[in-house]
Please model this.
Amino acid sequence: MSVDKRLHERKFVRTFFTTPTAEQGEDDSAKKLRSAIGLRGMQAPDVWVPDNEDATAPNMRDEGAENIADVVAEDGEEFPGEIHPRVVWHRDSPQTRYKCFQHMLEIADPKNGAVENIDGFVIPEVGDLDDWKKADEFMTIVENEYGLEEGSLAMSVIIESGTAELEMGRLRDEIGKPSNNLERMFLLVDGEVDYTKDMRAITPTGALPEWKELRHNTSRAASAAGLIAVDGPFDDIRDVAGYRQRMTENQAMGQLGIWSLTPGQVVEANKAPLPPEKGYWLIDEDGEEVELAAEDGVQQYVGDKISLEADGDEYHLTVGNDTHVLSHEELQTELVDLTAYVPSLDDIVDSMEEFEAAKEAGKGAIAMTRATTVSIDGVEVDISSDRMWDEATYQALQTPITLFQDVYDNRPDQHDDLAELYGEDVVNRANEVGN
Model:
């Protein structure tokens, strides 16, 4: 049996937020768990991961499992996201796998009162697919031990080895076989730190490689198997611009979720995949896209890598070290090629509504025009471009709307934030379009 559709209610996961489960020397070793479970709105993740593996010292993990059960039993019902504890596991260690089984039994025991608010478990350090099936079997045993429905606990894995990366390609054909319950699979999460160690990779500075191929492979495997791909942690928690750039790169390959290490990163990652509040124009500044400054409907370039001079009927356009002598029409064409528009949520809704109306009137395709005035060194040039919309274009560009609707449906605690960001009218229209 192969899979061609999502297996879980969530279509998207933007944020994967980990929290230590027990810390020695604290009056309350579960202090950070209690703080995290109280997060709401944009500070609360789509998936919260009480981390009883790397984030918790080995000698504190038994207490960590107890803390998870206690804290989730007390406050889990009110938490707005999903709760997926990360437990210990290792493809080469039967003892570690047995400890995983013990911790899952502790956390899921109905007598502890937490399991009704536990959505699944995160399994790290997996190897080949037979290893994934061992974790799946442990979860099936736990479900049967406590009278839970088989498959009710989701399973997510962290890809931290070359073996696991290769095995993602087999997952599509294994899910649904009567010998396993791998339909419970939910997230494929990249773990670049341990992956780097497993690959024996070296960089001159000791920084992690970008591993773009791993991220692409994870996104592709998730798409093929009906799952969701999530990128690994971004360790420089002060580098907000770098975090945003990482998410932009990921989103272009379908990996809309990312690991978050702090509530601040959660806010950034919750907002990043959503369309902006206001549309804006970009210009290619010698290989780097920069935002143009909008003033009274004119898009002003304020950098020093592009210059423009009018000389009678000709224009001298310099980009970096290259200068072009152009007619007015050639200049317009060149600026259309150099610029791009980033649509707001309102813009996307407008375009989709316009296409839906045209389709209702019997038209299979329509041209959408985008026009503005660009100013460089005081020289203003009107530009415009047409994009042909047909059903395929409509479906492809529906992803931001589907994401917005998924967020709205699954995160009622963010309704006020979304209304404040976009306005009630735009939010209402965005929830109606495409349905």
Notes: The radius of gyration is 25 Å.
